[in-house]
UniProtKB/TrEMBL annotation:
PANTHER family: PROTEIN YHFA (PTHR34352). This is OsmC family protein. It holds the Pfam family OsmC. InterPro entries: KH_dom-like_a/b, OsmC/Ohr_fam, OsmC/Ohrsf.
């Protein structure tokens, strides 16, 4: 895996991923940015959420569960001093489907957290991570 980061101006950067996708990152105005794009640490948090959501949906589908939607809300706290690593991250999953079994959803989340989601496992080296979830019955 590879990625190239190019400085545009101020504290605005564009990343080109190894798969050829572009992602812009920017800083807050008080850091010289123009607030045009997510901060790098926001990208890390989003990456962990995306990684885990991907796992959970895939695990449920492979188990032939009728999953229709998956939303993950992450709330993180960071250290007060540099390096301002994540110290706590809460993942809350809202899984929508038809007759989803709570034990299947819980198992999928635990498999993602403990085995498959490389991003959250990495972040777990500095942060305490909590997973909560709810099931919404599909119409």
């Amino acid at each position: 895996m590879e990625c190239t980061i190019k400085w545009l101006d101020g504290v605005t950067f564009v990343a080109e991923t190894g798969s050829g996708h572009l992602v812009t990152m920017d800083g807050a105005p008080d850091a010289g940015g123009r607030n045009l794009a997510p901060r790098p640490m926001e990208m890390m948090l989003a990456g962990a959420g995306g990684c885990s959501a991907f796992d959970v949906v895939l695990i449920l589908r492979r188990g032939r569960h009728d999953v229709r939607d998956c939303e993950v809300r992450l709330v993180a706290e960071r250290a007060d001093s540099d390096p301002k690593v994540f110290t706590r991250i809460g993942f809350h999953y809202r899984i929508t489907g038809h007759k989803l079994k709570p034990e299947a959803v819980e198992r999928a989340i635990h498999l993602s957290a403990d085995k498959y989601c490389s991003a959250s496992v990495m972040l777990g080296k500095t942060a305490s991570i909590e997973h909560t979830w709810e099931i919404v019955e599909a119409d």
